[in-house]
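Late entry, pyridoxal-5'-phosphate complex.
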Amino acid sequence: MRYFSLNNTNNVVDFREATLQGQAPDGGLYYPENIPVWNDNFIGNLKRKSKSEIGFEIMAPYVGNTIPENELHRIIAETLDFDFPLQPISENIYSLELFHGPTLAFKDVGARFLSRCMGFFAGKLAKKIVVLVATSGDTGGAVADAFHNISGTEVIILYPSGKVSPVQEKQLTALGGNIHALEIEGDFDDCQKLVKMAFLDEELRKRVMLTSSNSINVARWLPQQIYYALALTQWEEHHDPVIAVPSGNFGNLSAGLVAKQSGLPIDHFIAACNANDVFTAYTQSGNYHPRSAVPTLSNAMDVGNPSNFSRILALFQHDHQRLCEAISSISVSDVDTLSTIKEVYAEFQYTLDPHAAVAYNALKDHLKDHAGQKGIILGTAHPVKFPSVVQEAIGHRPSVPENLGLLMKKNKSARLTPPEYASFKATVMDILKNI
Ligand SMILES: *Cc1c(COP(=O)(O)O)cnc(C)c1O
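Prediction complete; structure with ligand written out below:
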């Protein structure tokens, strides 16, 4: 498989290059030259296959000959080393719980696959790999955990000061070793902007092998297809499911769209958004107007300019009508997010985190007009990661799993950094001096 840059289709690389570079040098996102069509045999036998077999068959064409088969088997097995249960909530809504991994969020899947591919590629490189990552909360924790102690790699994480939860902040700042946290005095869009500028900085690029681990990286983006297939292995209903995806940068949703294009039987997608509704507005008007993010209760979705938007356009060849046939988008307010958590808990004794609550509300709304259909929400994070929101909704905090208790006792270590490029770069240079 080869990948071209969405900014310039002449810039073509293999999986190894795309993974190491993250973003193309021209600032574009890498995109696969063709999307494999899975044969009927694969789809028909999905329920008889193991997690690892499914993961391997989905990823092998994307990886091509850049990683030997036995290594890829190991990487897949390590990536999927936890459960992906499809839990019924109500009569017509299920939750695919993606939060049973080490940092209790779906991003563990992409981050673990990426870190292990990176570790494999690092073995043959002269320069250190430096992973630069902007996080609105969950990305950083997943990346930190996934890369911790992977030799040949250093990770620099940027997160918006005061805008991540205490659990998230500890996951970013308490590991030490090859994981370095920068607390940026700004919002997530500032963090993302700094990362984008760093990638265009020749001096930095000469010094180290600079790469990203946001969902712009194909090795984080593409493995997210796997759990859509794992959901289907547990789907016993007659109709193909409608899947509601809590969306921020749209990496998760666009991976699901790729899986559907390859043949996975999914009826329809719902892009569930909070007040950051540029995509919802785009589906309604055909016009895309990125803007600054506004803070909400589902803060991992506080994104004003979703980085995977260009991939979604590419998937539908910029055909607005076809895109709207495949995806509906609904924007859900904080008030409705809270009341959804409350109602679902009261009615079904199921605790939603604020992101899943946005998806639940959007899916319930959609199903009202589509009698007979049933759907799946993606449970993108464990409710314990957002204790104060959950408490506000249901009156008590979710109980803390034991390993999280240990984490909370560790010390925070982060460098407070202004959101200007010059100060940011000075901090990065200082970190590089010491590695
Ligand atoms: C990152 C994140 C999202 C948004 O995912 P995207 O792939 O950026 O759209 C949703 N929910 C949670 C809990 C997240 O951490």
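Residues 204 and 306 are 25 Å apart (CA to CA). Will revisit in the morning.
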